[in-house]
Design goal:
single chain; alpha+beta; Gyrase A, domain 2; 3 domains; 4-stranded antiparallel sheet; transmembrane helix; transmembrane; PTS_EIIC
């Protein structure tokens, strides 16, 4: 670990209010995520001055996020080391926390919260934190799997390997490399969601895993199981009769709605059991009774409900995409710039996965890619201006954010490091979203809408997974170029911001 990282970690720790102000620390793909004793003592100006910090996001419930980009794991490790050293030496600096906490009041906290992107309603924040924290720890493997899919798509496009026909054992094995991630995704989501709600994460994983065992799947082939054809979806559903009760059987591989609902109910059951069972019996009877209660409840009720919710939300969007494709192709890119900062895009991500599971393809990721590349184009414009003005600080921020976007499909470094800091960026960004969306809508109306059979992070590397590929490529190119040119020509700062930035 470099001395620069150690020094920056120490400055972050000081700016956040010292070790004594930190209740909990974790990280996601680009952000350090703190739960603090007191948000009001955070020195935002000091944090913004640290080179690795791309932005700060105060939130409700004494939560705080610091955007540091792709090096977040290293910075998190450095901070954890400092916290462990502080705890071991007993030298956690609580003086600053206690002094300023006494001076703080509700007006100060309200001001801080209103300065963040989110944070006015605690339960809303909590809901979307639950959604996002259920996915964030597995973003890396989702990205890795999507790149394997992209590689296969390139080989298929070049007619090197036919991934639609009969494949050799070797290429079937390659399929398992990415398919494993999406097949067992419900178990991973259940684990993360349980951890978020302070339930034994292995308990959540085991309950979800019970619905994915060969024994559960075997129920579909029993003589007593009846089959029903859904005319709307064109699928066949199976109903088993378990102890005289009808149980709808579903393929839960790749499903994310079911584990999210199941864990929310499990948390209530888990806490109730811990309350009524003597503490010395927790280890045996809390997991035992949780399994006995939650597996049947999930199989009979929560599972079918989760599948129904996800399926019909997807069908609703599919209806809009079919009957008003022009509106859909423009609406999604224009919505995403407002959904992502609020964390409201996670339900749409879940719908993408559900579409692939139920329909065999997804139609949301194409328009979403338009937004992403408009975002990256705005960052490229800022980078060109920083090169022209020889602005080393902004050049470092923009180049890191652009690399994370173009090769990883991650928009947060651009969003929090640049776009939300300067008032003129969003109008140029939205112009790119509109131009790319209109391009996608016009071309799709003539040659067919853009679809993908894989959940892919929309980066340069995953362009081949979209079909028709050329329509998608032209649309994201337009979305990228328009904001870049607008920012180069008309800047991304107001006169006041430009003067302040130069100082």
């Amino acid at each position: 670990m470099s001395k620069d990282i150690q020094s920056s970690a120490a400055k972050i720790l000081e700016g956040i209010g010292g070790a004594g102000n930190i209740k909990f620390l974790t990280c996601c793909a680009t952000r350090l995520r703190f739960e603090l004793n007191d948000n009001s003592i955070v020195d935002k100006a000091a944090l913004d001055a640290i080179p690795e910090v791309m932005g700060c996001v105060p939130q409700s419930g004494e939560r705080y996020q610091i955007v540091v980009g792709g090096g977040v794991a290293t910075m998190h490790s450095a901070l954890q080391l400092l916290l462990e050293q502080s705890k071991a030496s007993g030298s956690a600096d609580n003086t600053k926390t206690e002094t300023k906490a006494a001076a703080s009041n509700d007006d100060v906290k309200a001001s801080l919260r209103s300065s963040g992107v989110r944070g006015k309603v605690a339960w809303v924040d909590g809901f979307f934190e639950y959604l996002s924290d259920s996915f964030r720890p597995i973003l890396g493997i989702l990205l890795g799997a999507s790149l394997i899919i992209a590689l296969c798509a390139v080989l298929d496009a070049l007619h090197i390997v036919d991934f639609r026909g009969d494949k050799s054992a070797g290429w079937v094995f390659v399929d398992s490399m990415w398919h494993s991630v999406f097949y067992f995704l419900p178990i991973m989501v259940a684990y993360n969601a349980s951890k978020k709600l302070k339930v034994d994460p292995w308990l959540g994983a085991a309950i979800m895993g019970a619905l994915m065992t060969p024994d559960f799947q075997k129920l579909t082939s029993l003589a007593s199981t009846s089959s029903i054809k859904d005319a709307t979806l064109g699928t066949v559903s199976h109903v088993a009769h378990v102890f005289g009760l009808p149980m709808q059987l579903n393929d839960y591989s790749g499903n994310v709605f079911v584990p999210l609902i199941m864990v929310a109910v499990l948390a209530l059951v888990y806490r109730f059991l811990k309350k009524i069972i003597p503490e010395n019996l927790h280890m045996v009877f809390v997991p035992f009774l949780s399994l006995i209660i939650m597996i049947p409840l999930t199989a009979f009720l929560i599972g079918p409900l989760g599948v129904w919710i996800g399926t019909y939300l997807g069908l609703g969007l599919a209806w809009l995409n079919t009957h008003a494709p022009f509106v859909f192709a423009i609406l999604i890119p224009l919505l995403y710039p407002f959904l992502v900062p609020l964390g409201l895009h996670w339900p749409l991500n879940a719908l993408m996965l559900m579409n692939i599971q139920t329909l065999g393809y997804d139609f949301i990721q194409g328009p979403m890619g338009v937004w992403n590349f408009a975002c990256f184009g705005a960052t490229a414009g800022v980078l060109l201006i920083s090169l022209r003005e020889k602005d080393a600080t902004m050049r470092q921020t923009a180049s890191g954010a652009l690399a994370a976007g173009l090769f990883g499909g991650i928009s947060e470094p651009s969003l929090y490091g640049i776009h939300l800091r300067f008032k003129k960026v969003y109008p140029r960004l939205l112009a790119g979203c509109l131009a790319g969306g209109v391009t996608l809508a016009v071309l799709s109306s003539m040659y067919g809408s853009v679809k993908t059979q894989a959940f892919a992070f929309t980066s340069l590397l995953t362009i081949p997974v979209f079909h028709p590929m050329w329509i998608y490529a032209v649309s994201i190119a337009v979305a990228f170029v328009v904001p870049m040119i607008l920012i180069v020509l008309f800047d991304y700062r107001t006169a006041e911001e430009k003067a302040e930035h130069k100082e």
